[in-house]
Design brief:
The chain is an alpha/beta fold and about 475 residues long. The protein contains 19 helices and 16 strands. It binds flavin-adenine dinucleotide (FAD) and iron/sulfur cluster (SF4). Iron/sulfur cluster binds next to helix 4 and helix 5. The site of flavin-adenine dinucleotide has 38 residues, from helix 10, helix 15, helix 18 and helix 19.
Length: about 475
């Protein structure tokens, strides 16, 4: 432990964000530089708890007190070694993770939690700067080959771990670029895409092959994979969006969030010289859905020059503090304000969307909403409309950000993969009903988080390695450590 009384001497401090009125004119990351000394001080706030609840909070089991100590001592090489034992991509999670580790940090009981996510990002960035993150191909190859379908964080983590174990890995991606939702869902102001490219260069140099524009089950036959590889990992995400079947849904100007976000991400990457076809410019925008995706739609709408932005949520507004139902160290069900909310717009909760109305050209012009009251009877929650509260709001672009229901079925049908009652890929310890086919990430878990996708990718790699070699030397959350094969 670096500084015994660090938590008494330093307050939690994070990098400042650029002013909203400045940053909505670009898609660059929003944070200003932060002096290195201040990050060392933030690491010194860690109390090196006897029972570090932060470990449990982190789906990857990151060894947080140890890397905090290394950062306090300015030992960046040691810090990245510790962090890389459990996390393949700290440069992603250090930027976009909701940080469940911080929610369960012991210091958080009566003071602001240790700034774990910021420390993680800084370790990754210092390690790149100092050349500690470099290609490290396996010393020997096993002669076994694995096909990973899907290049989101789950597929990338699985590929990275399987390659470390010495297998020859090919990642197949149907999109024109690698990254899954990191690339085409999450906007650049949260994760600039050169951060992904920098990591992909390392992975390619380590021997991983990436095949883009390769949709398995469409332009690449599943037989090519069955014949050419010893094992297959399905990491295709949960990409079927939840729809809103209400009167007027068919009008022009009503889109799924991902249609809107993908186009803008392509535009930032200079891939759409003709411009975007769905734009918020000069429009009254209504974002339906109060989660991460909705928040990304808000930030993107501000940057495109929306006239107004209204975000609506069916559920009631959460409190701004924990209650007896979500005590520490559980994840707090509190109201969350993202950087996109800070940039403007209005948020309303406990609102039901009843219908859309259109103009004479069939384009949406307004939305009918009604306030609802949530009730509970015999442990079951339900809502009732509040009479007399029905109203119309201007709406020239509606973005549906109400989640994803399941992975697409066609590929799973072709492989004859069993699915669960929730329509997800069914698996026992990441292995499907076919012994050589495995799964990880949102396709298996349902719509979730990047940190969970990485965790699942890593654990699925252990299962594949065991299947191919009889046992696995890959690290897993159950506690084994990588040894050279
Ligand atoms: C807009 C948005 C914002 C988000 N923001 C955050 C955030 O800030 N923090 C966070 O932790 N999580 C966030 N999430 C959730 C997070 O992005 C996902 O949980 C995570 O990306 C899931 O990873 P995955 O690898 O399982 O799937 P995905 O990232 O969805 O990747 C699946 C990949 O498989 C490919 N694929 C599908 N079918 C085939 C096929 N037949 N052949 C070849 N390739 C195929 C797809 O093209 C895709 O590239 C966000 C999600 C969205 C939609
Ligand atoms: S719970 Fe918080 S204070 Fe304790 S070891 Fe983890 S990061 Fe440090």
């Amino acid at each position: 432990m670096g500084k015994v009384d660090g938590f008494l001497n330093f307050n939690r401090e994070l990098p400042k964000s650029r002013k909203p009125e400045e940053r909505i004119h670009d898609y660059k990351e929003i944070y200003e530089p932060f002096p290195e000394k201040k990050t060392n001080e933030q690491a010194a706030r860690c109390m090196d708890c006897g029972i570090p609840f932060c470990h449990n909070g982190c789906p990857l089991g990151n060894i947080i007190p140890e890397f905090n100590d290394a950062v306090y001592r300015e030992s960046w090489e040691e810090a990245i070694q510790i962090l890389s034992e459990t996390n393949n991509f700290p440069e992603f999670t250090g930027r976009i993770c909701p940080a469940p580790c911080e929610a369960s940090c012991v210091l958080g009981i009566n003071k602001p939690a240790v700034a774990i996510e910021h420390i993680e990002k800084t370790i990754a960035e210092k390690a790149y700067e100092l050349g500690y993150i470099k290609p490290n191909p396996p010393k020997t190859r096993t002669g076994k080959s694995v096909a990973v379908i899907g290049s989101g964080p789950a597929g990338l983590a699985a590929a990275s771990q399987l390659n470390k174990a010495g297998h020859s890995v090919t990642v197949f991606e149907r999109a024109d670029q690698v990254g899954g939702l990191l690339r085409y869902g999450i906007p650049d102001f949260k994760l600039e895409k050169q951060i992904i490219d920098r990591r992909l260069d390392i992975m390619s140099a380590e021997g991983i092959v990436f095949e883009t524009n390769a949709e398995i089950g469409k332009n690449v036959d599943i037989k090519t994979l069955e014949d050419g590889f010893d094992a297959i990992v399905i990491c295709t995400g949960s990409t079927v969006p939840r729809d809103l079947p209400i009167p007027g849904r068919e009008f022009k100007g009503i889109h799924f969030a991902m249609e809107f976000l993908t186009e803008q991400n392509k535009q930032v990457a200079n891939q759409t010289p003709e411009g975007v076809s769905i734009t918020a410019k000069d429009k009254h925008v209504v974002v339906i859905g109060g989660g991460d995706t909705g928040s990304d739609c808000i930030g993107t709408s501000h940057r495109q020059g929306a006239k107004s932005v209204l975000q609506i949520e069916l559920l009631e507004k959460p409190l701004d503090h924990r209650t007896d139902k979500d005590p520490w160290p559980n994840w707090p069900m509190v109201v969350r304000t993202s950087s996109s909310h800070e940039e403007g717009g209005k948020r309303e909760w406990a609102l039901l969307t009843k219908a859309f109305e259109c103009d004479s050209s069939g384009h949406v012009k307004s939305i009918t909403l009604v306030d609802i009251e949530w009730k509970e009877e015999k442990g079951k929650k339900f809502f009732e409309e509040i009479p007399g509260t029905e109203r119309k709001e201007p709406c020239e672009l509606a973005l549906l950000a109400i989640g994803f229901v399941a992975p697409e079925n066609s590929l799973l049908e072709q492989f004859q993969i069993e699915i669960s009652e929730r329509n997800l890929v069914k698996a026992k310890k990441y292995q499907t009903n076919w012994p050589h086919i495995f799964t990880a990430g949102d396709a298996h878990r349902g719509q979730s988080l990047v940190v969970w996708a990485i965790s699942e990718g890593r654990e699925a790699a252990v299962a594949v390695d065991k299947y191919l070699m009889g046992s696995s030397a890959l690290p897993s959350k159950s506690g084994s450590f990588l040894v050279a094969r």
